Amino acid sequence: MRTRLFAGLLVVVGLLAWLAPAGRPAHGQQTPTATVRFSLVNLYLLPSQSSPVVGTVVSGETCRIDGRDEFVTWLMLDCGDRKRGWIDRRLVTVSGDLNNVLILEADTATPPPAVAPTPTPTPRPAAPPQVFQGWRVAYYNNPNLQGSPVAYEDAQFVSHNWGSNSPHAAVPVDYFSAQFERTLDLAQGYYQFNVYSDDGVRVWLDGELLIDEWHGATGITYTANRWLGGRHVLRIEFLELVALASIRFWYDYSTQSPVWQADYYTGAPARGNLLYSQREPGGGSIQLDRNWGFGSPVSGRVPADNWNGRWSGQFYFEGGNYLFRARADDGVRVYIDQTLVIDGWTDGYRELANRFLGIGPGNHLITVDYYKRSGAAMLQVWWYRDTTGPGLGP
User: Fold this and answer.
1) Nearest CA among 344, 341, 342, 368 for reference residue 357
2) Across the chain, what does the average pLDDT equal?
3) Is residue 330 scored above 80 in pLDDT?
4) What does the pLDDT read at residue 16?
5) In 10 A of CB 385, how many CB atoms?
6) Which residue has the higher pLDDT, 392 or 265?
7) Among 50, 128, 347, 356, which is disulfide-ready with 152 (CB 3.0 to 4.6 Å)?
8) How many C-alpha atoms does 285 have within 13 Å on its Cβ side?
9) What is the mean pLDDT of residues 329-340?
């Protein structure tokens, strides 16, 4: 009973802080103020983004600070004309000493009683163009693509760097989302889709989720590969949290048919369940060349650590002796027609080589097994005809 009474008192304190007139500073002290840093920022009823929005402030607007939370992460502002509410400390520039500002407590987990502040006008969404020449861009004033868009745009490319600004007057500088959509007629070939985003991003192809990275920025460029041709619908979803905002999407195209069948599994070094399969291209003088760094080989499908992979493909060989080489971090095994040629199935970086004598002319099956335990990951496997004689040099 006492716990429930205490929680109720916390809610009342938060509401009184919003409704009550501002307190006066101690004699001789200047009331601290906060100047808004971004073009359009929400004020909340309680110190939480899940709390109801009670108003908005704009860049350059200066408000009196009437309270703060214990950790100075939220400030209670009085901006006049009943514009009073909580704001994220990172979105303003503070003038004055916050140490003497009253600490206000509020139970942000409990929905507050109904309050009727002066309603904030909601901008009407701009009518979308009838015909889009490029990407159809829809902006939302929330981070989850909820409700109706508040603005539209026709963009030739998905290449935006808003920095600390808003993409549109109806969109806040932080905690907004956007959707880019376009139908493309693609020539038959191999496509690698690439996207860099600050913060979250999802990429869809004909309703299939290719890239799923709905979180804060990582500095990683995410990729997905497909052999495609004909008309396809691409959709990109973008999430902005706080601070800088940017997104860039592009794709690479090759007419070369992917020569490798790549299968990704759980487990390292033992192989577990199949996670994902796709066709992948070969290389030039290095027939299998991958460098994943500290990232995942297939974003959203395969973890960055503790995974297992297998690449298999048919390759033409002239008759004769061949030298096989491999560089890997971690384990690698190479087979020709199910005969083990290279065996380095242990953790850590290694460079290996071995000769295979008397390969008959024609197509042969090459299989490469690999596992990554943790840390950086890379894999190179290549072979060439050996005309140096019976000895194997260093």
Assistant:
1) 341
2) 84
3) yes
4) 45
5) 12
6) 265
7) 128
8) 2
9) 96
Residue 85 to residue 93: CA distance in whole angstroms = 16
Residue 267 has pLDDT above 90, yes or no: yes
Q: How far is CA 354 from the centre of its chain?
A: 41
More reliable by pLDDT, 321 or 127: 321
Task: List pLDDT tens digits, range 14-54.
Answer: 444 444 443 444 455 688 999 988 777 888 888 887 778 88
Strand order in the sheet with 377-385: 288-293, 377-385, 320-329, 350-359
Homologous superfamily (CATH) of 135-254 is: Galactose-binding domain-like (2.60.120.260)
Any idea where the domains of the chain sit in the sequence?
A: 2-95, 135-254, 260-385
Q: How many CB atoms lie within 10 A of CB 203?
A: 25
Q: Give mean pLDDT, residues 207-234.
A: 87
Q: What's this model's pTM, rounded to 2 decimal places?
A: 0.50
Higher pLDDT: 7 or 309? It is 309
Give dist(CA 304, CA 318) in Å, integer. Answer: 38
Q: How far apart are CA 355 and CA 342, in angstroms?
A: 9
Fold match between 135-254 and 260-385?
yes
How far apart, in whole angstroms, are the C-alpha atoms of residue 262 and residue 8? 58
pLDDT of 142 reads 94
CATH of 2-95, one of 2.60.120.560, 2.30.30.40, 1.20.950.20, 2.30.40.10: 2.30.30.40
